[in-house]
Structure formats: structure tokens, C-alpha cells
Amino acid sequence: MNKKLIQKRRMMKYFIEATQQIIEKESFDSVTVRKVSNLAGFNSATIYNYFKNLNELIYFSCIKYLEDYSKDLIICLKDSKNIFEYYMNIWKCFCYHSYKNPKIYFHLFFTNHTLCKGSIKEYFEIFCDGIDEPSRKLLPMLLSENIYDRNLSSLRNFVENKIINEKNLNDLNEMIIFIYQSMLYNILNNSVDYSIDMATEKTLKYINQAILSYKL
């Protein structure tokens, strides 16, 4: 890695970590350029040398949470005996991490980020040493910013193995995302009193029922 990229990564990390602190201790709405720059120990104008705007900085700060998910995902998948278990284990890992940090994941996947398109890919290109080699094989899925596309890509294995009819694929995909989004939203707004494990278990149960309803 050349010196320029090392410097860029170091500076971005200062601002990302400062933003994460504000999000965790306060809220997304509390993040301002002045607060971040003061916490990071730099002039406010310096932020714009590394990020297009505050929204991109906030988005990058959220992406960092995908590192822990990507590391755990390879562990969750290793004992999968078939494509069904493989698919359900993806969701088990994703639910666990997202329900642990609901505001982060809701912001990443259910907020409009038109101006931040490509940020997940850029993040992993700069900070790719944050994940191990086995996890890198899953990068194509991790790099997708559209949760509908991410899930649709995984569901295609069911079509290829003649478990689900392709004509039902989009409906099933939409149903599964609605199940997950609803649970995530309820956890985020404290509308349910579920532990992370219970919320994950319930989500997997509903996803399983959705798949069975379309099974050939």
C-alpha cells in the first residue's frame, strides 16, 4: 500500500471513528461537521478532503459495522449441509448483527443513499485488511448496497436446484425483505420486547414459512 493511500486511510479512520462515537452516544441527527472535526482533532474543512459531504461520512461510519458481520458470516456458513441451511445461516448471521445495531443497519439498507452509491465497495477497497481471506470470497454479496439484490442473488440457488419456481422468485424475495424490515423497524422503535436471539429466531421462522409456501 502506497504512502498516499495509507495517509488517506488513517485520516478517514479518525473521522469515521469520531462519527461512530457520536452516533452510538447520541443519534444520527446529532452528527455535525463541527462535532466530528472537534472529536477527531482536525479543522472542519479537512473532512471535505476525504468525504464528499456529511452524509457520505455517516454512511461510511455505518459500513464499518459490516466488518464484524463479514467475519462471523464465514463461521456461520461453514457447517451448512445444503443450500437451504446455507441460505438460512446467512439470514441468521445478518439478523443477529443487525438487531444488535438496528439504527446502523436500517440506515444502511432502508434509507435513500443515492449520493453514496458505491460507498460500500470503496470502503472495502480501502479497508479490506479488516476482513480475512475466507470472508473476501463473500465480498460480491457484501458489496451490494441494495438489500433486495443481495437477497435475490442468494435465492437464485433455490431456482437452480428446482426448489422454487423462477416466476415466484421476486414475490418471495419481496416477502422475505418485508419480514426482515418489519422486525428491524419494530426493534429500532422499541415496539417489541424481544431479545436479539428471540427476534432472530422469529424472523428465521417466518422466512422459513415463506420459502415453504413457494416450494415446488
Automatic annotation (TrEMBL):
Domain HTH tetR-type residues, every copy: 9-69
An MF annotation (GO) of this entry: DNA binding
Keywords, comma-separated and alphabetical: DNA-binding
Entry superkingdom: Bacteria
Keyword Phosphoprotein: no
DNA-binding region boundaries: 32-51
Name of a matching Pfam family: TetR_N
Matches recorded under SUPFAM superfamilies: Homeodomain-like
Record's keyword annotation contains rRNA-binding: no
Protein name in the entry: Transcriptional regulator
